[in-house]
Amino acid sequence: MENILEKEANKLLDALRKSFYDKKMVATGKTVNSLRQETTETGFKIYGGDWIEFAEFGRGQGVNSSNGKFYQALLEWAKAVGFPEGKVRFLQYYINKFGTRLHRGQDPRFPGKTQSGVLTDVLNEKYLENLKEVITFATITDYKIILRNLWEQ
After folding, report:
1. Long-range own/partner contacts, residues 28-35 (CB < 8 A, 24 or more apart)
2. Where are the domains of the chain?
């Protein structure tokens, strides 16, 4: 069963990564590369960086943290996309005051939406129903093999 779960977890990771690229949500690669999975014999978990929800919903307005992580992340992004580094402080101020374009529903990639779908278009009810079917089929198959082996003894 663990092999099936690991296979399904890896398929989900591949689909999530593809979604990031398809929706043009990759600049530095830090977020998409933060995706990873852990599989046990009873299930799997998908992990991503602490900031991953910003890819789905944007970043709302708020006060900049004193540790400077947001500014450093903006600098990395600016270098990756060719945004003028001299304007990063203003961008930081603007996002802290108003939120990102995605959060405000003004991102041209997702007109009128405040959600990119980068995560939820992949990981949704339809996906979970399909996973349930795969696991149910695998479990039934495992039990048939166990019963056949017991019968043959």
Report:
1. 28/76, 28/77, 28/79, 28/80, 30/73, 30/76, 31/55
2. 2-58+110-152, 61-98
